[in-house]
Amino acid sequence: MKAITIIASMAVAASVTASAEAPLAWTDASAHTPQEGAVKVELRPDTTLAVWHGQRVGLQALLTPDALLNGKTLRPRMKSAGGMQADARFMRYTLTNDFRACGVPPELEPWAVADIIDLDTALTVESGRNYPLWVTVEVGKDAQSGELSLELVDEASGKVMAEIPASITVQPFSLPDPSSKDYFHLNLWQQPYAVYRYYNVEPWSPEHLKLLEPYAALLARAGQKAISTIMFYEPWGEQSNDKFLPMVETTKKKDGTWSYDYTAFDRYVEFMDSMGVGPIIECFSMIPWDMNFRYRDEAANGEYAYLKTTSDTPEYVDLWSNFLSSFQKHLDEKGWSDRTVMAMDERGLADIQRAIKLVDTYAPKLKVSLAGYYHPELADKLYTYSIEVEPWPADVLKRRHDLGLVTTYYTCCATPAPNLFSNSDPADGAYIMAYSIATGADGYLHWSYQNWTDDPLGDTRFKLFAPGDTYFIYPDGRSSIRYERMVEGIQMAEKIKALRADIEARGDMKLMKQLNEALLPLQMGRRSKHATTAVIVENLQNDLSAISAELAR
Amino acid sequence: MKAITIIASMAVAASVTASAEAPLAWTDASAHTPQEGAVKVELRPDTTLAVWHGQRVGLQALLTPDALLNGKTLRPRMKSAGGMQADARFMRYTLTNDFRACGVPPELEPWAVADIIDLDTALTVESGRNYPLWVTVEVGKDAQSGELSLELVDEASGKVMAEIPASITVQPFSLPDPSSKDYFHLNLWQQPYAVYRYYNVEPWSPEHLKLLEPYAALLARAGQKAISTIMFYEPWGEQSNDKFLPMVETTKKKDGTWSYDYTAFDRYVEFMDSMGVGPIIECFSMIPWDMNFRYRDEAANGEYAYLKTTSDTPEYVDLWSNFLSSFQKHLDEKGWSDRTVMAMDERGLADIQRAIKLVDTYAPKLKVSLAGYYHPELADKLYTYSIEVEPWPADVLKRRHDLGLVTTYYTCCATPAPNLFSNSDPADGAYIMAYSIATGADGYLHWSYQNWTDDPLGDTRFKLFAPGDTYFIYPDGRSSIRYERMVEGIQMAEKIKALRADIEARGDMKLMKQLNEALLPLQMGRRSKHATTAVIVENLQNDLSAISAELAR
User: Fold this and answer.
1) Strand residue runs (E) in B417-520
2) Which tens digit of pLDDT belongs to each residue from A144-184?
3) Nearest by CB to A439, which of B513, B520, B536?
4) Using 50, 70 and 90 to split pLDDT, how confident is the model at B6?
5) Which of helix, strand or coil describes residue A386?
6) Which of A172, A422, B198, B538 is deepest in the core (most CB within 10 A)?
7) Does A516 touch chain B (CB under 8 A)?
């Protein structure tokens, strides 16, 4: 593998080249910007947007410093209209490659991708380089149409060196609050373990929870519906960089009975509650990948012992019948039973059915979820059920929805595209979310959120899977183009639901036809070089804005 | 390759086995019936159907002779209700294998498939064998709900040996006439050449045209919109069993000018007109696969000569500018100019563009069509344009439809499934046609109709392509399960269009929602072992009937 260097975010000696074009312009956010050389997207001196109240909007800009800007230290700044909270950040490069599959990656040429939306920093820029910027606008409940400007301020002189306007039309519609019950069902499995490793703090300590705040805030903003909790060490064996510590300490006493310490579990759930994440508590896993359960053995001075077993043994039933009885009692005391789901990931049908039977017997107030394969036998039983897009029969999606069960699509290393890898087309994130709702599912699941590599800011490649598959939020709570475009898609999905309900209530057949025609390209799921996710998403965005405008007349 | 024998349709010595079940039952038509052994479909003693006026309905039944029937010669017969024309035929086995691709087939085990709907014949049956039957019902404009019966009559005694009823509800809706302008755009390229070869008659003779009648009648019944005509020998080189004779005799005179004899062309077009096929006249091909054009050379005593050229030469321009000028003049005289389309098949963009330019210059009244790849440059130019399903951008389908241009999907050897091979799932034919309309296209194209193998009744395998790809109508005008299920799908497509228009006109938002939900599984195009084309088609048929019933209340 050839080593490549991400061009340092500092001024280096460079020849000054004059440019006839303006050094700052809006671009679309559907293409990755190379660090050097021509960009393939259209550059626009201004832009217009139609938005709803409650919407989070992302805008990408590109700075290509001319001779005047070369060597200057610039800080992006937003001038914003009333009721809008806008901020602008330089984007930051990290490494990826073209691997889009499972397993150990082959040797592939790495390349630098501007996936990270950096912290609020100034940058010393040089001509000949590309500097993408990301603007995030939160459109408040009282926001009014108006103009925003992205400015680049020279740190030395305080002068505005470049400025581009964006004209925002606020349409008279509001997105639901992401915490509302019927909002898009987002489920990104969390890895707080990576955070305490990276910052070297005590698990579940106040310092740890404090560090987790920005990640939880981004989850809440997107509409995250589930808190990922771990019952036993270790649900997924070797596949992650950081092991998943249990949030329950299980002890086998000398008399053969069991006791449980729920301190960490309670602390994490209460923390996520306080951050607005939930309400579902997902508990991993009755059928971990190694079927190996760790506990403290009082007879061995409290040392760790392991029960390596299968789901059809008396030992397994003893472990789980005792655990489930205690757990439901604890959840009852906390008032959490009706929001708790025993969660399973990609196991065989017989194992799943045995686990369900134990839950039904020993903790009947709890629900069950699965992310895995499609089993017709489980279709009406699992409260939340997530499988890859393709195998879902459309009539089952509808039946589950009508039954009040939650169905989500997931993507993982097995889906080359569309996906949320660091090398995925940026529009994929928006596409997948809107596609889910348009085709009768209720949301999206991803097995990782902040499952960091050894150098999460510098290199998204991991020993397994496509690069970036394991995380898309970066250290210090840095967002990414992948997260922002995912949020964009979730909001498109909510617009689709709201517009459909509104049009049905009005009985406006013409607009219903227009909405159906707008959704058809997405529903067909047909992508090609002539109909990329970027094209499909952009057309749908325009159609949804036009239908909103029509409804508002 | 192991030789296998199709079990002869005659009694052979067999042990008589008693069966507790009735020997005659309805089955669904979505699974191929093996000649012997258990069948995997549900057997029903009776069946109910909801139909529209003008509908052609196919029903499959299965005879598994018991001891009583063993050795008897049986003839199927229909008792039918008023206003319905029903007939019943034994199905007939031919050979296929599991090859579903292009190119030279590998050695694969052949198997017998009951694809052929045989002529009106009696059959001596034996227990231990399966005998599928096919019932075709034409529901007339004045048909009323009632009961049909399939009877099996013993030829020797005249006694009815078995009988099963079918209850038909005629809904108060009519399908459009298949010849109407906006009907599903079906385009099956014809091969009358195979027919004169098979029956050894003179091309374009009265005997030949007489023999072509049943094939033309089946085309007209299905809604065929185009008459396939050949300008020069030979558009497709070696890929067919029978060469495509030109319908125009082109002569280069001694003075270097050209003359044309349109006798065969006129005769074929007039024959197809008389059979109700059309109105489009498709003319192959300005850019044949070998770019080799045959003509008679007066300077060489009228012997055949060949112009092997490319589309960018003066010779090519000379050949086609003269031909097109004369051809348009001839078409004007016949009154056919506005229905004639210069047709091209799978050539490069530059060739296509040069041909279009010649048409625009020398025969500007004629239109142009292409079956091939998707070229954005041609999307608004080609009158009829057919490409495989996947590459069509959905927004282009809509734009072309709104512009009055005709877009069709084709399937060929490159599409493993769904398709119309003799080894395809029978429901595929219905699925593809309904899918076309539900996803914004106007119809379907197939490159062959009766492009027979050496033994078309006995073996559908050919030296190239998947078996059955080259034809699905058999000698003596025998229909097939593939043709009948294709017609079923075309009629579903017409029901979708009619119901949508009706519901829009009524402004019934509830039914529109119901129709949209019914179409979604088809539009999604997502097939799996849990959602086969059979399941998707059956669900949609039921939904369309339920919506029709609701509208009729």
Assistant:
1) 443-446
2) 999 999 999 999 999 999 999 999 999 999 999 999 999 99
3) B520
4) low
5) strand
6) A422
7) yes
Q: How many interchain CB pairs under 8 A, A with B?
A: 84
Residue B424 tokens read as: 């395809």
ipTM of the complex: 0.91
Q: Does B429 touch chain A (CB under 8 A)?
A: no
Q: Which residues are A445's β-sheet partners?
A: A187, A410
Tens digit of each residue's pLDDT (9 = 90 or more) over A380-429? 999 999 988 777 888 899 999 999 999 999 999 999 999 999 999 999 99
Q: Is B107 touching A (CB cutoff 8 A)?
A: no
In Å, how far is A530's CA from the nearest CA of chain B? Answer: 6
Query: Any bridge partners for residue A297, and if so which?
Result: A252, A303
Q: Which residue shows structure tokens 């069946």?
A: B47
Q: Is B86 exposed, middle or buried (0-12, 13-18, 19+ CB in 10 A)?
A: buried
Q: What are phi and psi of A287, to 5 degrees?
A: -135, 75
Contact residues on chain A for B511, CB-CB shorter than 8 A: none
A160-174 sheet: strands from edge to edge: A47-53, A160-174, A146-154, A73-79, A123-124
Helical H runs in B178-313?
A: 192-199, 206-222, 263-274
Are residues B498 and A360 in contact, defined by beta-carbon separation less than 8 angstroms?
no
Residue A39 confidence (pLDDT): 87
Buried b (16+ CB within 10 A) or exposed e, A489-506: bbbbbbbbbbbbebbbee
For residue B229, give both structure tokens. Answer: 């005509």
What are the backbone angles phi and psi of residue B284, rounded to the nearest 5°? Answer: -105, 140
Residue of chain A nearest B530, judged by CA positions = A393
Nearest to A115 by CA among A445, A464, A428, A432: A428
Question: B392 touching A, CB under 8 A?
Answer: yes
